[in-house]
Every structure is written in structure tokens, then in C-alpha cells.
Design brief:
The chain is mostly helical and about 325 residues long. The chain has 13 helices and no strands. The radius of gyration is 24 Å and the shape is flat. The two termini are about 15 Å apart. Belongs to the binding-protein-dependent transport system permease family. OppBC subfamily.
């Protein structure tokens, strides 16, 4: 509980810093949201109309006043309203987050179905044919950009053979191509990571002791070696999960998938600052909570960490 309390305190400070930095950088970005909102078929707008809208949105106030007003609303869980749709930002995000989480979850399933068996077999049969295949897969996966792989999947499985839809959202079939695109890219990394982590675990003294006690190979592998090997994998997983959510932006645009990524791209183009700010904070909270869960998981995956913490008290 002490660890959780400390992490939550750090999360609060992190969010304040993140909100301030992102707010300032958005104000420094080129483009005027008022002009974009008033522009209709390239018709000219008057200065009075622009000033009126600026006053309505509070953009005529000093930047520090705008930030203070926004921050006070944030503590009330009010992210403001979208400049374009006039809808509350939290509703805009809530409508898109389930789609992005579904894509993220399905991509993780693809990654685990490939990385866990292939990485495990590669470690168990080192320098055998399965190990050579996993190395080739890892090199190819790390070399091919995900958006290029997505284009290949669209051309092959959608345009040429018509097996899966390449755009939009509706059924589970719409998740197949974007999930494969993200999952294969991640699997290439985790295959090698799991292999190296398992090989390191096999050389630990506790594995030798377990064999000397006559434990079965399956028990040694699953209860000792595999558990020990998961610690570094979970570490990287916590970091890459945030990157995965960020990576869905490109894939959502590529497959015209109506998730948070598509929403944020549209908001950036239209200078919809409240939506951008809400997205940044949502991502910050999500990534920070994932890191907290990763720290807690260490105590179960590697009991030595908990023992060291108790000895340091």
C-alpha cells in the first residue's frame, strides 16, 4: 500500500506538469482555431466575428488565466467542450475509447499467441531450426514498418482476395487486419526478449537446485524458469503498452478505424485544443497506471524485490 500511495502522489505531480507543458505547447503551435471554425467555403470573416468567438471560447484571456481555468475544471472532471462539435470532451473520448481498447486488446492477443510459443520453443531448442526461424521472424518484424505491413495486408487480404474488410468498424472481422498489423510488429520484439530472458533463467542457481531436488522438467520450467523470465518481459510490456496505444493512431488512420487515434488526428487538423488536451491527459493517466501495476507485479514475479524492500526498511 505504501508503494501505491507513493506512486499515486507521483502521478498527481506528473499530471500537473504534463497538463502545463502540453497546454503551453498547444498555444505555441501554428494555426488559429477561431479562423478554422469560422471559415466556411473560404468565405471571409470579419474581425468582429473573430473577436466575438474568441471571447466566447475564452481565448482572449492571457494564457495563464486560460490554463488556470482549464485546470480548475479538470479537478472537477470537466475537460471542457469540443470547439467543433460543442460536445463535452469526456463524452467524445468515452465514445472512442472502447474501440481503441478493443483494437489494443486484440493486438495483444495476436502478439501473445505468436511470441509466447515461439519465444519459448526458441529458448528450449536453442540453435535448432525453430530458433533460426524465430530469429528470422524477429529481424523481419523489426525491419518492416507497421504502416507498410498494413498496406500489404489491405492489398492482399482485402483488395485481392476480399477476405476481410479494410475500413471502418462493425464486426470482429474489421479487427483482423489492424490487429495483425500491430500484433505482428510487437511479437517480433517479444519473441527475442522472452527467448533471452528464458535462457538467462535456465542458468540461474535456483534452477540447478530444483533439478538436484528431482523436480520434473515441466514444474521447473513453469513454476521457476518461466516465472523468473517474465519480470523483464513485464517491464518492457508496461512501457510498450503506452507505445501501442500511440501506435494505434497510425493504424486507425490507415484502416479508417473510428478510435481515439482517428479522433485525435482530426482534432489536431482542426486545432480542437480541448480534445487534444483531454487525450494527452488520458494517455498520461493510462500509462502511469500501467507502470504502477507493473511495479506491483514485480513483488509476485520476483519475490527477491519484496525481500530487499523489507530489509531496507
Amino acid at each position: 500500500m505504501k508503494l501505491v500511495g507513493r506512486r499515486l502522489s507521483e502521478l498527481f505531480i506528473f499530471l500537473i506538469a504534463l497538463s502545463f507543458i502540453s497546454f503551453v505547447f498547444m498555444k505555441l503551435a501554428p494555426g488559429d482555431p477561431v479562423k478554422l471554425m469560422l471559415q466556411v467555403d473560404d468565405l471571409a470573416v470579419t474581425q468582429e466575428e473573430m473577436e466575438s468567438l474568441q471571447t466566447e471560447l475564452g481565448l482572449d484571456q492571457p494564457v495563464y488565466v486560460q490554463y488556470a481555468n482549464w485546470l480548475s475544471r479538470f479537478f472537477q472532471l470537466d475537460f471542457g467542450n469540443s470547439y467543433i462539435t460543442k460536445q463535452p470532451v469526456i463524452e467524445e473520448l468515452a465514445a472512442r475509447i472502447p474501440s481503441t481498447l478493443a483494437l489494443t486488446f486484440s493486438s495483444l492477443v495476436v502478439m501473445m499467441l505468436i511470441a509466447v510459443p515461439l519465444g519459448t520453443l526458441s529458448a528450449l531448442y536453442k540453435n535448432r531450426w525453430i530458433d533460426h526461424i524465430s530469429r528470422l521472424f524477429a529481424i523481419a518484424g523489426a525491419s518492416i514498418p507497421s504502416f507498410w505491413l498494413g498496406l500489404i495486408f489491405i492489398q492482399l487480404f482485402s483488395v485481392k482476395y476480399g477476405l476481410f474488410p479494410s475500413m471502418g468498424k462493425g464486426s470482429l472481422f474489421h479487427l483482423v487486419l489492424p490487429s495483425l498489423t500491430l500484433g505482428l510488429a510487437m511479437a517480433a520484439v517479444y519473441v527475442r526478449l522472452l527467448r533471452s530472458s528464458l535462457l538467462e533463467s535456465f542458468g540461474q542457481d535456483f534452477i540447478t537446485s530444483a533439478r538436484a531436488r528431482g523436480l520434473s522438467s515441466a514444474r521447473i520450467f513453469w513454476l521457476h524458469a518461466f516465472r523468473h523470465a517474465l519480470a523483464p518481459v513485464v517491464t518492457i510490456f508496461g512501457v510498450s503498452l503506452g507505445s501501442l496505444l500511440g501506435g494505434t493512431v497510425i493504424i486507425e488512420v490507415l484502416f479508417a478505424y473510428p478510435g481515439v487515434g482517428q479522433l485525435i488526428i482530426d482534432s489536431i487538423v482542426r486545432r480542437d485544443y480541448p480534445v487534444i488536451q483531454g487525450y494527452i491527459l488520458f494517455m498520461g493517466i493510462f500509462v502511469a497506471l500501467i507502470n504502477i501495476l507493473v511495479d506491483i507485479s514485480y513483488r509476485f514475479l520476483n519475490p527477491d524485490i519484496a525481500i530487499k524492500e523489507m530489509n531496507n526498511r
